[in-house]
Design a protein that fits this description.
Helix 1 packs parallel to helix 7, helix 4 crosses helix 7 and helix 6 crosses helix 7. The chain has seven helices and ten strands. The chain has two domains: about 130 residues, MutM-like, N-terminal (N-terminal domain of MutM-like DNA repair proteins); about 130 residues, Orthogonal Bundle (Helicase, Ruva Protein, domain 3). With about 280 residues, it is of the alpha+beta class. The protein is about 25% helix and about 20% strand. The radius of gyration is 20 Å and the shape is globular. It binds a DNA duplex (16 and 16 nucleotides) through helix 6.
Length: about 280
DNA sequence: CCCACGACCTGCTGGC
DNA sequence: TGCCAGCAGGTCGTGG
């Protein structure tokens, strides 16, 4: 469940549980996810108190009172769930990391595909962390605008859809919101990113902000039964205009002609778009 | 540097 | 009904 709105929803869901919480024990049920857990991972978390929960791009960052930061990425299929105090706990399939807090509550990380990531680094070295150092601007801040996007796309030949998935261009956008934003901005996903003029970049940057803000209000999108920390599902999937709508009549674009949402594959990912609106 | 492509995993769906 | 190819919200490394 992992683009910016989903990750931010997870962060918010974790906050009441984790902020100020002290980690009592950590159980690792395998040696790593996509990459091995860092040396001394469990021991470094044990006894630490979480002072703050942040998000950068699709990463959840937990500041510890030890000066370290606990980094998590959900990959394609990762999720956190809370197990209340006193509830008997037996691990389910793909429960890989279990934190028991001093409060008696538990936090479980489950990830069937194991594309997720967990790491630990020193807070004062944050700029040097490989996953974070090259990230582009946060789309929901003032650091991101049509002008900024335009500059970042200059000279690029990759299709705009592919550029939006590049976390160095703008961070936190994934396949769903790339498709939805391009639709809203009326931009053809195949268009060479370096050839998009400033006015269109303005539209696109605004579309990214709009669609992500709308998704955040709905608690993100829940595909394939994915749930948030509290067990509820996000609702934004009901507001998709193109994503997952292949073959459906395009109604949202407002033009009167009868036409349909098409798919193409770009950089190995399915792009959904309306050939009429996105010329 | 830039870009295309495969690899990493498991689970679900749709077509035969 | 059962089986299997194909596909899934992401990143990273390796080539040319």
């Amino acid at each position: 469940m992992p683009e910016l709105p989903e990750v931010e929803t997870v962060r918010k869901g974790l906050e009441p549980l984790l902020k100020g919480a002290t980690i009592k024990t950590v159980t690792l049920r395998r040696t790593g996810l996509r990459a091995p857990f860092p040396a001394g991972f469990a021991q470094s978390l044990e006894g630490a108190t979480i002072t703050r929960l942040r998000r950068r791009a699709k990463y959840i960052l937990a500041d510890l009172d030890t000066g370290q930061v606990w980094l998590s990425h959900l990959g394609m299929s990762g999720s956190f769930r809370e197990v209340p105090k006193g509830t008997p706990f037996t691990p389910e399939t793909h429960d890989h990391v279990i934190l028991t807090l001093e409060s008696g509550k538990r936090l479980v990380f489950n990830d069937p595909r194991r594309f997720g990531q967990m790491d630990l680094y020193d807070r004062d070295q944050e700029d040097a962390h490989k996953a974070l150092s090259a990230l582009g601007p946060e789309p929901l801040t003032r650091d991101f605008s049509g002008l900024v996007l335009h500059k970042r796309l200059l000279g690029k030949k990759v299709p705009i859809k592919v550029a939006l998935l590049d976390q160095r261009v703008v961070s936190g956008v994934g396949n769903i919101y790339a498709c939805e934003a391009l639709f809203r901005a009326g931009i053809n996903p195949r268009k060479a990113s370096g050839k998009i003029n400033l006015a269109s970049c303005d539209d696109l940057a605004q579309a990214i902000k709009d669609v992500m803000n709308a998704a955040l209000k709905s608690g993100g999108s829940s595909l394939r039964n994915h749930r948030q920390v509290d067990g509820k599902e996000g609702l934004f999937q009901h507001h998709f205009m193109v994503y997952d709508h292949a073959g459906a009549r395009c109604t949202a674009c407002g033009c009167k002609k009868e036409h349909y949402i098409k798919t193409i594959v770009q950089a190995g990912r399915t792009t959904f778009y309306c050939p009429e609106k996105q010329r």
